[in-house]
Specification:
The chain is mainly α. The protein has 10 helices and no strands. The relative contact order is 0.24.
Length: 254
Amino acid sequence: MDPLALVLAIGIVAAVYASVGQAGGSGYLAVLALAGLPVADVKSTALALNVVVASVAAARFAAAGHTRLRGLWPLFVTSAPAAFVGGAWLPSAEVYAPLVGSVLLFSGGAVAYRAWRPATEASLAAPVLPHALVVLAVGAVLGGLAGATGTGGGVFLAPVILLWRWSTPKGTAALCALFVLLNSASALLGFALGGAETWRPLPEGMLWLFSSVALGGALGASAGATWLPARPMQAVMATVILLASMKMLGTLIA
C-alpha cells in the first residue's frame, strides 16, 4: 500500500471510530493487514495506535461530561489483568483472522439492531445498574479477548452496554474510550514481556502514523462528544464494525 494512502486511511479510521468512543483497533488491523504487515507487527502497531486515540477520546468525552463510572468501575478491575495475559498470546494468522472477524460480526450486528430498531419505552428508560459480579465477569472476558485480538475491546464492550442498557449512547462511548485505553496499554505491556518469540517492536517507518491518528481521533471525538446525535453514532459504530469483520473474514478482500 502506498505510504500516503496508508496514513490517510489510518487517520480516517481514527476519526470515525473516535466519534463513538472507539480507538479504531479493528480498523487498524484491517488496514495494516492490507499493507502486508505480519500478524505480530499488526497486533503491536494496532495496540500502540489505540493508546494514542483512546487517550484523546477519553479526555474529550470526559471534558464534555459524559464519563460516569457508577456501577461500572469493576469492568476495569478485571479487564486490565486479562488484557495483559491476552496480549502475551500471539495466535497464528489462520486462527487470528477468523477469531477477530467472527466476534466483530456479532458485535456489529448487535449494535446495528440497537441503532435501527424503533424506540420503545424500555429503550428510552434510565440506565440499569448491573450487579458487580456480572460487571467483573464481563470485564475479565472482554479484557482477555481485547488483548488477544489487539482491538482494545471497545467494539466488544459497546454492544453489551447498549443492549443491557447500562449507560446512554454517549456514556457508552466515554466508557469504551477508557476501557480501550487501559486494555490496550496493558495488552501492549503483556505483548512486550511475552518473550522473544512474541515481541515485535513497532515496524520501522510506522511512527509517523501516530500524528495521523492523533489528528483524526481529536476531530472525531470532538464531534461525537458534542454535536453528533446518539442514533447516528450507533449507526456509524455498527457500520465500521461490520466492515472490519468482513475484511477480517475475507469477504471484501481476496
